[in-house]
Amino acid sequence: MTDRPVRVRIAPSPTGEPHIGTAYIALFNYLFAKKHGGEFILRIEDTDATRSTPEFETKVLDALKWCGLEWSEGPDIGGPYGPYRQSDRKDLYLPYVEKIIENGHGFRCFCTPERLTEMREAQRAAGKPPKYDGLCLTLSAEEVTTRMAAGEPTVVRMKIPTEGSCKFVDGVYGPVDIPWDAVDMQVLLKADGMPTYHMANVVDDHLMKITHVARGEEWLSSVPKHILIYQYLSLEPPVFMHLSLMRNADKSKLSKRKNPTSISYYSALGYLPEAVMNFLGLFFMQIAEGEELLTMDQLAEKFDPENLSKAGAIFDIQKLDWLNGRWLREGLSEEEFRGRVLAWAMENDRINQGLKLSQSRITKLGDLPDLAGFLFKSDLGLDASSFAKVKSSPEELVAIFNEVQPSLEKILEWNVEAIEAELRAVADRLEKKLKVVVAPLFIAVSGSSRSLPLFDSMAILGRSVVRQRLKVAGQVVASMAGSGK
């Protein structure tokens, strides 16, 4: 522990749909701050300029607010240590990088991406872990100056000790010992002048006076790099705490390829934020059977950071369903329940847009449930018979879904125009008419061949729900192809 006032942060990257794992880590930090009378800060880490977008940043903030989390400093409300978006802090990092170079702890690297790729492939072929081989480590000052003056692209890498190991005490794992020969010469400053995650992370945590860094266990191997940067800059490091990853029931890593992982998915399906936070909070405490239903204040009261499990947090969707059902029945009054239902139906303007699209397609109001009901369903109940009227063979359907699913992931701004453009591009790549490609997608998204316009429906449902429905449909057509149906 530290005797400084506790300050913790959550620092998501706006590069995709906000992950349920982000809520898990954010909740821990929030409860930790509550437990110690400290401050919980939100920082946006958007050093990856090619993948970070304002849309995803907005989604991150909206998702964390939906979870019921409140921060005392952040990009939306400001604070004494701002700005709280790394792209707005670009000029802050260079002096720290230059100090590392001047003190002999960093060096300029001119290796091209092609050379680095060849190097890593050769290392893998030799059965070695891929890491930088130090080619530019011994360049003379004169050669560095000459190559930079010629405009040759360059990055800055950190030097790593050649002997011994990095020893530190983790707040969850206890004493940790990682040999230096397992640590790569990390890039600190990219060719475009932006810092890498590792460099910006350390500088920002220092300037924002962060006392404890609680994050997922996948970052445990990065601690030696971070500790070195702190040492190279003569700065005091925070206390590191690495939380066990959330896993599926089979102990595999929770990933969107296997299960829905977006916070927006659980919101869209009608899970209550109180239930989701309750479910995640139970991973951080030991409670007796029958005491599972806990508010945020009760979670903070029972939170025990000194008694955390390293066994792994199992994301049991059945338990989440059970908790959500209890919250709906026991946690809401009749009036609150009605309000939540209406708010859920209005999410993403779903009911208004659904009614707008339905008006010209029905003959009586009783047609609405069959036509637009898919916008509100949790499960469409797809099976092989759902695709009986589609003219494409099962093998062709598999090819369509295999092409569509990753293609839609590339869309940065999820809207009707972008969805249509991408699906037209898919049809061109598959050398099929657009109607052949969209026919099975109608069924995958709505459960019916007669539905609302596909592109509009996908936009209303949102990326995370569409992703899951396409995955389920893809599994159905794959089983059809495997069985010869």
Protein described:
The mean pLDDT is 93. The chain has 19 helices and eleven strands. A three-stranded antiparallel β-sheet has the order 3-4-7. The chain has a two-stranded parallel sheet with strand order 1-2. It has a two-stranded antiparallel sheet with strand order 5-6. The chain has helices spanning 20-35, 54-66, 90-102, 113-125, 141-149, 197-207, 223-232, 263-268, 273-281, 296-302, 317-330, 334-346, 350-358, 368-372, 394-409, 416-430, 434-446, 454-461, 463-483, and strands at residues 7-10, 39-42, 106-109, 155-158, 165-170, 174-179, 187-189, 212-216, 239-243, 246-247, 313-314. Helix 15 runs antiparallel to helix 19 and helix 16 (416-430) crosses helix 17. Helices cover 46% and strands 9% of the residues. It is mostly helical.
**Number of separate strands:** 11
The largest sheet is: 3 strands, antiparallel
The overall average pLDDT, rounded, is 93
The spatial strand order of the largest sheet comes to 3-4-7
Structural class: mainly alpha
Provide the gyration radius in Å: 25 Å
Strand content: 5-15%
pLDDT < 50 runs, ≥5 residues = none
Specify the helix fraction band.
Answer: 40-55%
Quaternary organization: single chain
Question: Which of globular, elongated, flat, extended, rod-shaped describes the shape?
Answer: globular
How far do the termini sit from each other? 62 Å
Number of helices: 19
Series of secondary-structure elements, N-terminal to C-terminal = EHEHHEHHEEEEHEHEEHHHEHHHHHHHHH
Catalytic activity: tRNA(Glu) + L-glutamate + ATP = L-glutamyl-tRNA(Glu) + AMP + diphosphate
Subcellular location: Cytoplasm
Motif ('HIGH' region): 12-22
Organism: Pararhizobium capsulatum DSM 1112
